[in-house]
Amino acid sequence: xxxxxxxxxxxxxxxxxxxxxxxxxxxxxxxxxxxxxxxxxxxxxxxxxxxxxxxxxxxxxxxxxxxxxxxxxxxxxxxxxxxxxxxxxxxxxxxxxxxxxx
Length: 102
Fold this sequence. Notes:
Blueprint: H1 3-25, H2 31-51, E1 66-73, E2 80-85, E3 92-96
Antiparallel strand pairs: 1-2, 2-3
Helix pairs in contact: 1-2
């Protein structure tokens, strides 16, 4: 999800929470809106961690990335991507095939 998409999702969650508060204050049941807001926030915050990045692995702890042997297809570009895994953080990254992580 893009940065703007994340912002839009969090704004939607805020509006749902505000609607829930309004409904609760009028005596109605706004619990469903609170649940919706919580699910959107949780999904938005954790989506990035589990989906990973398409950038080549780099940064702190160089050399900790391990190839998993898995391959994925980027459906937007048609590029074949190798999956790399960092056993320390649990992060997965998707790197174009043949590219060597730095």
